[in-house]
Predict the 3D structure of the following.
Amino acid sequence: MAKQIQKDKSTKKAKRDQSLSLESINYQIILAGVVTIVVGYFALSAKPWDNPIALNVAPILLVIGYCVVIPIGIIFRRKKTEEGGTEVGAQ
């Protein structure tokens, strides 16, 4: 019974290694998130401190960058077909 538990652990480790691979599209999405964050910080530093851009737009950009775009860049995975292993829509 102990051997069976060890087999299950090795298959889980293999699945975990495959799920963490990032492709170029992931890096592009993460780069877009970093650009959004940098723009948010520049908007936050706008003078005077009580203008609408610094108070409203900058926090929205920062939340979108940190909480939406970066996680999408990490989680996103292209769908592949069963037969050839090619991407859907690719020719």
The CA atoms of residues 3 and 9 lie 10 Å apart. The radius of gyration is 21 Å. Residues 23-71 form one domain.
